[in-house]
Specification:
Helix content is 35%, strand content 24%. The chain contains 19 helices and 25 strands. Helix 4 (126-139) packs across helix 5 (142-152), helix 9 packs antiparallel against helix 17 (472-487) and helix 17 (472-487) runs parallel beside helix 19 (563-584). Residues 297-300, 344-346, 349, 352, 396-397, 481, 485, 598-599 line the site of fructose -6-phosphate.
Length: 602
């Protein structure tokens, strides 16, 4: 959610900023901008929409002498996506970029306006630059002024500030939103995640909450509430992990197709012939744990929900799943015999991170399942299992969901093995099924084309219900979320057995039902639920190995004996279905409106 890049040095700054912002663009793409101070001269460019608009606007600008520079790509929180609201925000002689939300901005703004500051944007961010200049006009000391500014900010932020009052310095602060500093000889980089600086910096320092400071003359001075502190840089991989589309039309499409391959990575070294092992865990860590609580948001929440069936069925451990944003404010009762699991693709989701911090404060053991090493959630957790999906660029998550679900299934079998809750033959059956998952994720010849053809009938109507039972209910939720994110059509996921308790009132010829009808789990039950809908004239798209006479459309899957294999095969179909509807509607598949890849605000 929003992206920040900064650079001090002699290299051409526009290219470094635009290049870095492009790496972050999938996180927010309402507007973008950058500012440079070179020879005490301020330059500032902004454009609404994608980074290419900013690049087009700055074709004739070059900055190749020594200078300081900051850039930003925005996902609007306060104020519409306009040029005036785009970052960097200018005071009289300073610029600021910011990710997160300044919660007390209204109060600060009123105070600053009373002293004569004039605001041009509707953003909370602009407050930071005016507050800084207010202090600096009195103190004539940019560092002390920045420190005083940071002390007055409430909320989550990562911010960079440059000023003509000290034109060779970048000031930075981090609290609750990610920020890191990259180093290469005398060049210093800033970014809100490591992709913009990979290939440029050789070492990195990930800032902690409450840290602030400045970079000047090839050096960084770091402070927290206790004063100046030392820090250890770590090596940064030079391997540019930036995903390319590899001939696919969209990142999302590429990511759907690569699920089969990445799933083997997820299992590598963990799934053995007759056991599942995680080097990240041991029985000592799990000692005293007799129940699990999982917190996550969105797609990650859906994978958590699917796993709760598996933890109870296989590991015989009570498992409760909560949406992180709800959990935070419900004053939850937390007991130390609970293992607290967070699931996050990005590792930066503000609500999930805050839920994790609450659990830690209550003394719970924490485990995160995450796709991004060194992310805030990974660093905050006692233990972390990486999903190894590789960078996911499509805003609509696909392979991250698949690998999260896989890790959770593996975890449920790992617990079952440790606690001996199911016979060893059943563990073997689970493992045999796991080994077949990469096959279940392969897209057979003709399937994509079939889905493309049938989607032409699904562009109108008054909405979609995705229905399923058991683990196929969370999959229905996920199928509906995928569709609504990129098609902008209304879709709901529902437990099939629950339709008759209200939603069936919506059934008529304008209602589309996508029915997940696995053969290996409660087939007769879901069949009756779908028949009830069909009797009321709803359009039925049945996804099942078993031909279903009442279906208006039918996608046949394989007769797999294990429900998880059916789960993964149907997951791919729902992903391709959403993709093809979105393409037909002419939407931006990879960067759908109003969304961002990493939600670092509450
Ligand atoms: C949907 C999607 C979101 C995320 C949610 C949590 O396709 O990607 O619903 O799942 O914002 O994000 P993470 O997993 O990064 O914590």
């Amino acid at each position: 959610m929003c992206g920040i890049v900064g650079y001090i040095g002699k290299k051409e700054k526009k290219e470094i900023l635009l290049d870095g912002l492009s790496e972050l663009e999938y996180r927010g793409y309402d507007s973008a901008g950058f500012a440079v101070i070179e020879n005490k001269e301020l330059k500032n460019f902004k454009a609404v929409g994608k980074i290419e608009n900013l690049a087009n606007k700055t074709t004739h600008y070059l900055s190749d002498g020594f200078g300081v520079s900051i850039g930003h790509t925005r996902w609007a929180t306060h104020g519409k996506p306009t040029e005036l609201n785009a970052h960097p925000h200018l005071g009289q002689y300073s610029f600021v970029v910011h990710n997160g939300i300044i919660e007390n901005y209204q109060e600060l703004k009123t105070k600053l306006q009373a002293t004569g500051a004039s605001f041009v944007s509707q953003t909370d961010t602009e407050t930071i630059v005016h507050l800084f200049e207010y202090h600096n006009n009195k103190l004539a000391n940019p560092f002390e002024s920045f420190k005083a500014t940071v002390a007055e900010l409430d909320g989550a932020y990562a911010t960079l500030l440059i000023t003509k009052a000290d034109s060779e310095t970048i000031y930075f602060a981090k609290n609750g939103s990610p920020m890191l500093i990259g180093f290469d000889d005398n060049d210093i980089y800033f970014a809100s995640s490591d992709t913009p600086i990979i290939g440029k910096a050789t070492q990195v320092y990930y800032l902690e909450d409450g840290e602030y400071g400045y970079a000047k003359d090839g050096e960084v001075k770091l402070f927290d509430a206790k004063g100046e502190k030392s820090f250890h840089k770590q090596a940064l991989s030079m391997d540019k992990a930036s995903a390319q589309k590899d001939g696919f039309r969209f990142f999302m499409e590429k990511e759907i197709y690569e699920q089969s391959r990445v799933m083997s990575e997820t299992m590598m070294g963990r799934v053995n012939d007759d056991s599942v092992d995680f080097e990240e865990l041991n029985s000592y860590f799990l000692n005293g744990i007799d129940n699990i609580k999982i917190c996550a948001c969105g797609t990650s929440y859906h994978s958590a929900l699917a796993s709760s069936y598996l933890f109870e069925r296989l590991s015989k451990i009570p498992c409760v799943v909560e949406i992180a944003s709800e959990f935070r404010y419900k004053e939850p009762l937390l007991k130390k015999n609970t293992l607290f699991i967070t699931i996050s693709q990005s590792g930066e989701t503000a609500d999930t991170l805050e839920a994790l911090k609450m659990a830690k404060r209550a003394g719970l053991k924490s485990l995160s399942i995450c796709n991004v090493d060194n992310s805030s959630i990974v660093r905050e957790s006692d233990r972390a299992i990486l999903t190894r999906a590789g960078i996911e660029k499509g805003v609509a998550s696909t392979k991250a969901f698949a690998t999260q679900t896989m890790v959770l299934w593996m975890l449920s079998v790992y617990f079952a093995g440790i606690n001996k809750t199911i016979p060893s033959e059943q563990i073997k059956t689970e493992i045999d099924a796991m080994i077949h998952v990469p096959r279940a994720l392969l897209i057979p010849d003709g399937l994509h084309e079939q889905i493309h053809r049938l989607t032409k009938r699904y562009l109108h109507g008054h909405g979609f219900f995705f229905i399923g039972r058991d683990i196929f209910f969370p999959l229905a939720l996920e199928g509906a979320l995928k569709l609504k994110e990129i098609s902008y059509l209304h879709a709901e996921g529902y437990p099939a057995g629950e339709m008759k308790h209200g939603p069936i009132a919506l059934a008529d010829s304008g209602l589309f039902t996508v029915a997940l009808m696995p053969r290996s789990l409660h087939y007769d039950k879901i069949k009756s639920n779908v028949e009830e809908l069909s009797a009321r004239d709803a359009n039925i798209l049945a996804i099942s190995p078993e031909p279903f006479k009442l279906a208006d459309d039918f996608i046949q899957t394989s007769y797999d004996s294990h429900p998880m294999l059916e789960f993964f095969e149907m997951m791919v179909i729902t992903q391709l279905f959403a993709l093809e509807v979105s393409v037909r509607l002419g939407n931006d598949v990879d960067m759908p409106r109003n969304l961002a890849k990493s939600v670092t605000v509450e």
